[in-house]
# Entry
Amino acid sequence: MIINKELISKIKDYFSLNIYETKVWLALLSKGVASAGEVASISKVPRSRTYDVLESLEKKGFAIVKLGKPVKYIGVKPKVILEKLRNNVRTDAHEKIISFSKIKNTEEFAKLEELYKGGISPIKREDISAALKGKSNITNYLREILQNANKEVIICTNAEGFNSKLRLFHQTVKILKKANVKVKIALSGDEKLIKELSNNLGIKIKRIDIDAKFFVIDKKEILFYLSKEQNDTDAAIWLNSEFFIQAFVRLFEKAVGRRK
# Structure
């Protein structure tokens, strides 16, 4: 079996196998049904190691033992393996979510909150401005400040970017509506997509020509992106200055109001 090193390396990483496991699994797939000796010959894995590797693959679900003598092995179909791994990830993620949810109710978490709220130098939100980096970090922080709004939320971004985070915004708008928080959304970009988003959310969305990306909460906090690109190097600024933000909102509403 001649398989290039690059393929072996990628399959190894994709399926979290070691190098011997990868070679043996590929050998089984190419042969269909094979004995340990045949696998060793095809894969070029030392015969003394082949038995252990086959046993490991069987435990992981990549190979099954064929009934009968002599003992032979069958490589499990890649599609089946992929689905199994996907299900495992879902299960693990669900268990972690449950685990994280339980942390909030622990005594240790309560102490963390006490440290944050009443430490030696308690943080005053009105004194804070911060730079946020990374797509995941910004999205998580955005979710928090939006869902903690009390009176009004202004969302200004482009339709494509909004659509890429539709799940977040759909959930957020639902929470805000339930709390009687006014939601104003203004999007630039494709008019047809904007109408679809408006129908999806059940809220009026205004189309604008402002090429900007920012979120205003209760006219007291603002988070704005430093670029419109969406990637892992995203950067945003969060400000908590009521004087600045109210002036900013007045300028924005004046600009939006001018558009017919």
Remarks:
- The longest helix spans residues 78-103.
- The chain has two domains: 5-79, 128-258.
